Amino acid sequence: MLMVSILMVKETMFKFIKKFIKAVFIAAILSALVKKFQRYRHIKK
Q1: % helix / strand / coil in the chain, to the nearest 5?
Q2: Which tops the pLDDT comparison, 30 or 41?
Q3: CA distance 10 to 4
């Protein structure tokens, strides 16, 4: 029984970590795009 619960916890943690990494990756891309856009607007002025 204990082994099953440990496996469940590991699987849940793995899913959570994957979601977290994806969220961080998306946030990094968005921030990079925002910086590029701000620089572009600044040059346009």
Answers
A1: 95, 0, 5
A2: 30
A3: 10
